[in-house]
């Protein structure tokens, strides 16, 4: 009997629907799904799971360490805990540029406060002053300032000018922030990507209250809309195949018909029926159940069964990029 587990925190709808869907499909004959149960975590000792869907280890370091050991022992962990530990938004933007996917112009800012247990000498490699004028004139104002490794709209600021930026930067403590060009968009989309091949493009209005964000219609229609959807799908696949995420969302802001990737480091993306709506929920439950079953079937005992993106397999080369674009 193969086992699929799901690790989760305060979510109430998706995990149970996922478990039920897997068990309905497999009829619990040769594959069964359940909530992950942890009684003991011992080094290099196998877990009982062929596949684990991870929805929470970003907030619980104990689980992240448990998952790395599970991956070492052969569990296909969705998403790869090693890569997720290394990844952050600034790097994702850098990779997008190399892949030829439009992203807002972005700069990385040193944190307001020095990290704990460091001294002034720890920042001595920074030029004094740094090239602020060049940075600000490249990005322009208004701009967005947000953590390079964040999520859930925490510490996301819109800054109107230099003095506003410094005032807001005061509040950011030890967070490493990015300064990003504002994309004034006509449409916005949020896209699920599963298994590096399934894409669901959802119109999304980030300016509405949370419960209404998915209740929106795109403004473009007809052939232009169709072309845009094809382009978005291609960008979503390119990004996720390069990053190696099995389960992720990518957000795009559309300006002058060009989709700019805004936020694509969401490896435990919101999948609550009450926010994404019944139709999108059904899609994500079904596709993720099918993905987990396929991974359980193809799991080879004792080897690393996690997904490694093309970037991790070899540093990305021009020929990889060309292959991705085909
Ligand atoms: N460069 C940008 N241009 C326009 N809007 C942005 C930009 N960056 C962020 N936003 C707005 O802020 C929201 C939150 O930022 P995002 O990068 O998605 O952070 P989080 O990972 O916390 O969700 C986005 O959904 C979008 O509405
Ligand atoms: Mg976001």
From TrEMBL:
UniProt-listed GO biological process terms: SOS response
Organism whose genome encodes this protein: Arcticibacterium luteifluviistationis
UniProt cross-references to InterPro entries, sorted A to Z: ATP-grasp (IPR011761)
PROSITE patterns in the record: ATP_GRASP
PANTHER family xrefs: BETA-CITRYLGLUTAMATE SYNTHASE B-RELATED, RIBOSOMAL PROTEIN S6 MODIFICATION PROTEIN
Protein name: ATP-grasp domain-containing protein
Gene Ontology terms for molecular function: ATP binding; metal ion binding; ribosomal S6-glutamic acid ligase activity
Keyword hit for ATP-binding: yes
Domain ATP-grasp: 93-294
UniProt keyword annotations, A-Z: ATP-binding, Nucleotide-binding
Coiled-coil segments: none
An annotated GO cellular component: cytoplasm
């Amino acid at each position: 009997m193969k086992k699929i587990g799901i690790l989760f925190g305060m979510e109430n709808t998706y995990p149970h629907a996922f478990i039920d869907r897997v068990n309905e499909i497999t009829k619990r004959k040769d594959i069964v799904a359940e909530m992950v149960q942890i009684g003991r975590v011992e080094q290099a000792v196998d877990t009982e799971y062929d596949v684990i869907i991870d929805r929470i280890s970003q907030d619980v370091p104990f689980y992240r360490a448990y998952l790395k050991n599970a991956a070492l022992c052969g569990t296909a962990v969705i998403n790869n805990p090693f890569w997720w530990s290394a990844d952050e938004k600034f790097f994702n933007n850098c990779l997008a540029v190399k892949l030829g996917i439009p992203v807002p112009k972005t700069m990385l800012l040193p944190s307001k406060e020095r990290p704990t247990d460091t001294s002034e000498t720890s920042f001595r490699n920074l030029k004094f002053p740094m090239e602020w004028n060049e940075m600000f004139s490249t990005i322009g104002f208004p701009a967005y300032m947000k953590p390079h490794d964040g999520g859930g709209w925490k510490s996301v600021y819109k800054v109107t000018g230099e003095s506003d930026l410094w005032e807001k930067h005061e509040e950011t403590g030890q967070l490493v922030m990015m300064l990003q060009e504002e994309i004034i968009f006509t449409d916005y989309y949020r896209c699920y990507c599963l298994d590096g091949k399934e894409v669901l493009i959802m119109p999304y209005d980030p300016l509405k209250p949370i419960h209404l964000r998915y209740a929106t219609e795109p403004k473009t229609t007809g052939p232009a809309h169709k072309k845009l959807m094809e382009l978005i799908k291609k960008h979503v696949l390119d990004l996720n195949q390069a990053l190696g995420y099995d389960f992720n969302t990518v957000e795009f802001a559309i300006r002058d018909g060009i989709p700019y990737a805004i936020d694509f480091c969401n490896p435990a993306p919101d999948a609550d029926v009450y926010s994404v709506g019944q139709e999108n929920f059904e899609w994500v439950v079904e596709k993720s159940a099918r993905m987990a079953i396929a991974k359980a079937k193809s799991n080879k005992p004792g080897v690393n069964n996690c997904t490694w993106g093309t970037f991790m397999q070899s540093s990305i080369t021009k020929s990889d990029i060309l292959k991705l674009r085909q």
